[in-house]
Every structure is written in C-alpha cells, then in structure tokens.
Write a structure and sequence with these properties.
This protein has about 50 residues and is α+β, with helices and mostly antiparallel strands. The protein is about 40% helix and about 10% strand.
C-alpha cells in the first residue's frame, strides 16, 4: 500500500488520512500519548498525538 495521500485520487483526503493513521497504529503498535507523525503522508509539518 501507498504511505502517502494521493491529492489526485477520487477518495477524500480525510478518508485517506484516516486509513493511513489506522494502518500506522496497527503496524507500529502506537499507544495513547505516542507521537503521531503525519507530515510525510499529508504534506504538512505538524505532528499530532494519538488519543
């Protein structure tokens, strides 16, 4: 699977980001409070936190 958001896809960006977050949590075993870096996938420069 692709680990980036496709800005030209018919799928909404929020849905693509949701899928990437869920896959990242499953793949990396993230726990509440762990930093969540979505900047590479979404083309942003902010990091969030898993809640």
């Amino acid at each position: 699977m692709n680990d980036t958001i496709d800005r030209h896809s018919a799928a909404p960006m929020y849905d693509q980001l949701r899928r990437l977050i869920i896959e990242g949590i499953s793949r990396d075993g993230l726990q509440p409070g762990d930093p969540l870096h979505v900047d590479d996938a979404a083309g942003t420069s902010r990091a969030g936190t898993v809640r």
